[in-house]
Amino acid sequence: MKLNETVHQVTERIRQKSLPSRSVYLAQLETARTRSPGAQRLGCANVAHAFAALPRNDKLRVVVERVPNIGIVTAFNDMLSAHAPFQHYPDLIKSEARKLGASVQVAGGVPAMCDGVTQGTPGMELSLFSRDVIAMATAVALSHDVFAGALMLGVCDKIVPGLLIGALHFGHLPTVFVPAGPMTSGLSNGDKSKVREQAAQGLVGRAELLAAESEAYHGEGTCTFYGTANSNQMLLEAMGLHVPGTAFINPGAAVRDELTREALRTVLGTADFKCPPIGLLVDERCIVNAMVALLATGGSTNHLIHWVAVARAAGIVIDWDDFSALSDVVPLLSRVYPNGSADVNQFQAAGGPGFVIRELLDGGFMHADVLTVRAGGLREYTRVPGINAVAEGFPKLVWQDTGASKDEGVVRPVSAPFSTSGGLKLLLGNLGRSVIKISAVPDDRHIVEAPCRVFESQESLHQAFAANELHRDVICVVRWQGPHANGMPELHKLTPPLAVLQGKGFKVALITDGRMSGASGKVPAAIHVSPEAATGGPLAKVRDGDVIRLDANAGSLQVLVPEAEWLAREVLPMPEALRQANGTGMGRELFTSMRRNALSAEEGARSWL
């Protein structure tokens, strides 16, 4: 199938504007890649320190026999449901390595926080920058420089982008990502949301709400909605960085352990295939494939920040114009909550990533001619893994074609999509640049025009809602929520009250320089407004009662104030008391330099150059 012309044009535009930075990156990669292995290159004391803790036989293999030594970077902790399964992965991988004549070391661990725990609390203001901390921790782990390849154990929101950014700064290493899968289905996401809205109205108490939440989030694995964590896994499949079909296999499934062993076999390569360095694999075509997969599945808006930073780590420059151009032509092929009623387990059962990738390849929306960690290229990622027993009694992985959709209410072919365009729109106007996720927003809510109410924090919006001050057509502006102001927390706790207002028939929308997370849904929300208010952006000019028009169809966001008055209006400074409060307590002091140096949301909100 011929590549879609817009996909081709966007890819070429990215390639051209990335030429200077990509050339520098590839030169650095080549210098690192052509050196002698670390155990032969480093001094004797360095080598002794590096392998002092290895079992004697493993030490002999690495130092004398010069077998490959693979480094594991793990996000294991047993507080996060998604990362708890990683506890035993290193032992599994080391056992497999010995069979294959290789060696494995846990190079280091990275922090992994859960936005579900910290939503609406000061801890949430560490969340976005934890991505850069994870990237730096990955670099620290790999800086021992004795590895022939790496395995990245991580799943959730900031963890995968952080691991990927860190790995790309060691782009000379073959690297495979190893997920743990989603938890089994509990209380449906729709029923959970209903209870949240009832709680927002005071119709149920804490006991009922906690019971519902605990039934939804009940075991090991990622949350089952299609938020940032599960969008991560879809994108890694589309980039060819997983063992094919690994993303949405539940923890504890019989095939899961074998897929983990296969990850080691993949990074080691075979006699006729050598796993490519990750920095060569992640080129502009690979990045475009990830962007297309995000749009085709109605994925997390967080990736309009994260994947900008990921691309930049490989010397590739993308922006929201690229996402917008792709969104105009990429069809929406799946509906998974919050863009539908299905959860990710139902998505997997209906066809999952394999079905979507096959349809996008066949439809000419993805680059087929890309490197992946597997010899068969991206076509391998259109298949579903399983196990066949062999004569010796050992499990053997097999992959089968995905086949037709098992549920066209969840996944559809390119020939009959849910929509002929993707679920994300770029908004432009006198309030700056922002994005909106419309894949879950009813068609009659794509345009909202109403007087605004300005809030300095999400808490003040909750207070106004509780006092019945918002029961009308209203656009809620929540400012001072960008990277500079307070680390750009997700404002997901605003969804229930706004959904209640919308459910009562009011025209409602949210405008903010903060984030709304991968769980943003049916309420129109112009998010990531850039430049942010704290750096003098237009949101700092908005006053209570200004009429604002959000038009997702036309891609515009305008405050309807006479131009002369708007240009003359004072840009309010961020209240000093608010700035002080945002910078103290819950470890926020340690992130002062990150807030001060953060680039804009469209530049990935990154704290590094």
UniProtKB/TrEMBL annotation:
<feature type="domain" description="Dihydroxy-acid/6-phosphogluconate dehydratase N-terminal">
    <location>
        <begin position="68"/>
        <end position="380"/>
    </location>
</feature>
<dbReference type="InterPro" id="IPR004786">
    <property type="entry name" value="6-phosphgluc_deHydtase"/>
</dbReference>
<dbReference type="InterPro" id="IPR056740">
    <property type="entry name" value="ILV_EDD_C"/>
</dbReference>
<keyword id="KW-0119">Carbohydrate metabolism</keyword>
<feature type="domain" description="Dihydroxy-acid/6-phosphogluconate dehydratase C-terminal">
    <location>
        <begin position="410"/>
        <end position="605"/>
    </location>
</feature>
<keyword id="KW-0456">Lyase</keyword>
<keyword id="KW-0311">Gluconate utilization</keyword>
<dbReference type="Pfam" id="PF24877">
    <property type="entry name" value="ILV_EDD_C"/>
</dbReference>
<dbReference type="InterPro" id="IPR020558">
    <property type="entry name" value="DiOHA_6PGluconate_deHydtase_CS"/>
</dbReference>
<keyword id="KW-0411">Iron-sulfur</keyword>
<dbReference type="InterPro" id="IPR042096">
    <property type="entry name" value="Dihydro-acid_dehy_C"/>
</dbReference>
<keyword id="KW-0479">Metal-binding</keyword>
<dbReference type="Pfam" id="PF00920">
    <property type="entry name" value="ILVD_EDD_N"/>
</dbReference>
<protein>
    <recommendedName>
        <fullName>Phosphogluconate dehydratase</fullName>
        <ecNumber>4.2.1.12</ecNumber>
    </recommendedName>
</protein>
<feature type="binding site">
    <location>
        <position position="156"/>
    </location>
    <ligand>
        <name>[4Fe-4S] cluster</name>
    </ligand>
</feature>
<feature type="binding site">
    <location>
        <position position="223"/>
    </location>
    <ligand>
        <name>[4Fe-4S] cluster</name>
    </ligand>
</feature>
<comment type="pathway">
    <text>Carbohydrate metabolism; Entner-Doudoroff pathway.</text>
</comment>
<comment type="function">
    <text>Catalyzes the dehydration of 6-phospho-D-gluconate to 2-dehydro-3-deoxy-6-phospho-D-gluconate.</text>
</comment>
<comment type="similarity">
    <text>Belongs to the IlvD/Edd family.</text>
</comment>
<dbReference type="InterPro" id="IPR037237">
    <property type="entry name" value="IlvD/EDD_N"/>
</dbReference>
<dbReference type="InterPro" id="IPR000581">
    <property type="entry name" value="ILV_EDD_N"/>
</dbReference>
<keyword id="KW-0408">Iron</keyword>
<keyword id="KW-0004">4Fe-4S</keyword>
